[in-house]
């Protein structure tokens, strides 16, 4: 899966910023996604069946991943690395880690009921919150966050795949985009990136 064209410069900036960083936790410069036109408030249905808004967590850092629980491969791996990285950061600096609220947005509302979402998120981190919405809501939210998704053909057995962008974004306390977490690398890399930007 490739990055949307309007995100490509920011992805390149992220790679350069990571390469330039020292082994310490101090940022080498401005956040890679500083000024990027991604994000914004939204309201979806949470894993408890109640409305959850991005703005509910103003004042906290937020990680956001778009995927679906029936994903056979990439979603569980991405979420596992992101949450394992958060756990490592919690072990090293619980005070700063407590400022992070992880969010999982399902782009498969047909199958990802609140109960299914809750079981999925609980398997990875006790603070991870799952949410989803109508197709119209998801179309708007995914576009606002620079992503895409499309639901594939249903098989004879009734299953289907959902193609989607795989970024795990880190947003700041004011909802500003900061960085893309390196979930394609390792939990250690994710923890290091959180350590670099969360204050």
Automatic annotation (TrEMBL):
Annotated region (Disordered) at 25-44
Report domain Thioredoxin positions. Answer: 33-199
**Range of residues in the leader sequence:** 1-28
Q: What keywords are annotated for this sequence in UniProt?
A: Copper, Disulfide bond, Metal-binding, Signal
Q: Which cysteines in this chain are paired by disulphide bridges?
A: 71-75
> What InterPro entries does the annotation carry?
SCO1/SenC, Thioredoxin-like_sf, Thioredoxin_domain
- Binding-site list for Cu cation: 71, 75, 164
**PROSITE patterns reported in the protein's UniProt record:** THIOREDOXIN_2 (PS51352)
Molecular function, one GO term: metal ion binding
Its recorded name reads SCO family protein
**Family in the record:** Belongs to the SCO1/2 family.
């Amino acid at each position: 899966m490739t990055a949307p064209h309007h995100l490509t410069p920011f992805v390149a900036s992220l790679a350069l910023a990571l390469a330039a960083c020292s082994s310490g936790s101090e940022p080498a410069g401005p956040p890679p996604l500083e000024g990027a036109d991604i994000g914004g408030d939204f309201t979806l249905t949470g894993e408890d069946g109640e409305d959850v808004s991005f703005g509910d967590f103003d004042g906290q850092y937020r990680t956001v991943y778009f995927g679906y629980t029936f994903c056979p491969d990439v979603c569980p791996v991405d979420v596992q690395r992101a949450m394992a990285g958060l756990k490592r950061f919690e072990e090293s600096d619980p005070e700063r880690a407590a400022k992070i609220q992880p969010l999982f947005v399902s782009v498969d509302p047909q199958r990802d009921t609140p109960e299914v979402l809750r079981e999925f998120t609980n398997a990875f981190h006790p603070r991870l919150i799952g949410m989803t919405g109508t197709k119209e809501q998801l179309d708007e939210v995914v576009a606002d966050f620079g992503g895409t998704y499309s639901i594939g053909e249903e098989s004879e057995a009734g299953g289907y795949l959902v193609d989607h962008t795989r970024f795990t974004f880190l947003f700041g306390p004011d909802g500003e985009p900061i960085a893309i977490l390196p979930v394609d690398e390792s939990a250690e890399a994710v923890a290091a990136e959180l350590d670099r930007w969360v204050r």
